[in-house]
């Protein structure tokens, strides 16, 4: 965005631009203004077919989601491995997955986030009551508040999912909407990448809007 570094610093809890810039430099190796220039140059421009996809984006409301999630770190190319590991953890914890939806939560943009630092959460609708067997496991409870969302239906191989995200970004810009403060969300009707199931090719993608 064009938001000033000072406004961003104050919004995330720093008392001055200087303190924020020092912390940012330690973490990312660039000052925030330098990083903004670099990240814009690194971002892939939208392609013509993504403008066509944007015509099918719609606004909707999403109810509060109570989830059980496991966080993974690494490259977005390993998302399939994350889901396979998540499936094993669900089985070990004896969590009943019947009739439940699954959620992939993208917290970083893989175009500008270093590969080893990208965060991706695999999640399932939280069982009620929460199983006692989860103590000492990588699972954590997560709640995503009720929100307005811009939603696209992704159809195609998973490695092309960012075309659907970019279509939403185009739609938000064209409709003069603003993004909300929430991660990207992928919604699956069944456990993706489980044994016997190829990579998903038809699922919903959402970004929060105000």
What does this structure look like?
By secondary structure, this protein is an alpha+beta fold. It is 31% helix and 25% strand. The protein has helices spanning 5-11, 17-28, 32-42, 48-54, 79-92, 161-174; strands at residues 58-62, 65-73, 102-106, 119-125, 140-144, 147-155, 184-188, 202-209. The chain has an eight-stranded antiparallel sheet with strand order 1-6-8-7-3-4-2-5, covered by helices on one side. The longest helix has 14 residues, at 79-92. The protein is globular, with a radius of gyration of 18 Å. It starts with a helix and ends with a strand. The mean pLDDT is 90.
Task: Describe, in short, the structure shown.
The protein is of the alpha+beta class and 210 residues long. The chain contains six helices and eight strands, in the order H-H-H-H-E-E-H-E-E-E-E-H-E-E.
* Strand tally: 8
Low-confidence stretches at least 5 residues in length (pLDDT < 50)? none
Terminal CA distance reads 15 Å
Q: Outline, from the CA principal axes?
A: globular
Largest sheet features: 8 strands, antiparallel
Total of DSSP H or I helical runs spanning 4+ residues: 6
Strand-residue fraction? 25-35%
Mean pLDDT across the residues is 90
- The main sheet orders its strands as 1-6-8-7-3-4-2-5
């Amino acid at each position: 965005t064009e938001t000033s570094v000072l406004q961003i610093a104050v919004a995330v809890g720093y008392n001055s631009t200087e303190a924020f810039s020092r912390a940012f430099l330690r973490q990312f190796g660039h000052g925030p203004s330098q990083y903004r220039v670099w990240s814009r140059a690194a971002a892939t421009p939208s392609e013509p077919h993504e403008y066509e996809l944007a015509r099918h984006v719609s606004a909707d409301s999403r109810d509060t989601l109570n989830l059980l999630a496991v966080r993974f770190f690494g490259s977005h190319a390993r998302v399939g491995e994350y889901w396979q590991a998540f499936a094993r953890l669900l089985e070990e914890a004896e969590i009943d997955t019947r009739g439940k939806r699954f959620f992939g939560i993208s917290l970083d943009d893989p175009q500008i986030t270093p590969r080893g630092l990208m965060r991706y959460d695999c999640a399932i609708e939280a069982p009620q009551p929460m199983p006692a067997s989860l103590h000492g496991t990588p699972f954590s409870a997560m709640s995503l508040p009720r929100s307005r969302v811009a939603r696209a239906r992704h159809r195609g191989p998973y490695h092309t999912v960012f075309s659907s995200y970019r279509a939403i970004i185009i739609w938000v810009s064209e409709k003069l909407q603003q993004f909300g403060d929430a991660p990207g969300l992928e919604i699956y009707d069944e456990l993706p990448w489980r044994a016997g199931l190829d990579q998903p090719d038809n699922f919903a993608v959402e970004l929060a809007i105000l």
